[in-house]
Amino acid sequence: MKYRRVLLVTELDRVAGGVVSTIRRVAPAAEFILVIACAPKRNFAWFSGAAPGELHESVTASVDALRQSMAGAAKNVEITLAAALDAASVAEIAAASDIDLLACEWTLPMSGIAAIAEVRKRRSLAVLWIARTNASDRRSEEHTSELQSLRHL
Predict the structure, then answer these.
(1) Strand, coil or helix: what is 23?
(2) Which three-class secondary structure state does DSSP give residue 105?
(3) Per-residue model confidence as pLDDT tens digits over 53-77
(4) How distant, in Å, are the alpha carbons of 60, 61, 96, 141 from that of 99?
């Protein structure tokens, strides 16, 4: 299938090159990518005009870095910040934007994973779970696999 409209759900400060390259491989003809970047509530408040300058600058820098990492992945990239994920909002966004691929970074908190599962129940979408690809995460995944193998013995 040729995915043209992608919704990426990730955490602010977590998007790495591996996530972007995976989306480029899976959806090379993407015309539109909407990124929902989840920020902890304490960080989300920092984005308001009432936040101290250094905190506001920190969140702005994170959004700018995310925008830069997504550059070139699609003709049009939009970034939205969210304090939390809920299935109804994500499903509504997916429907309004005519999304055909829902991509999620594997590091989402359990509440985010539950919201994505609920969206999948509500709407027929392909879902792509993207694992982190840096060395420490690979070691962690290998360790988890070893523990799961030992549990079966």
Answers:
(1) helix
(2) strand
(3) 555 677 788 888 888 888 889 999 9
(4) 26, 27, 8, 30
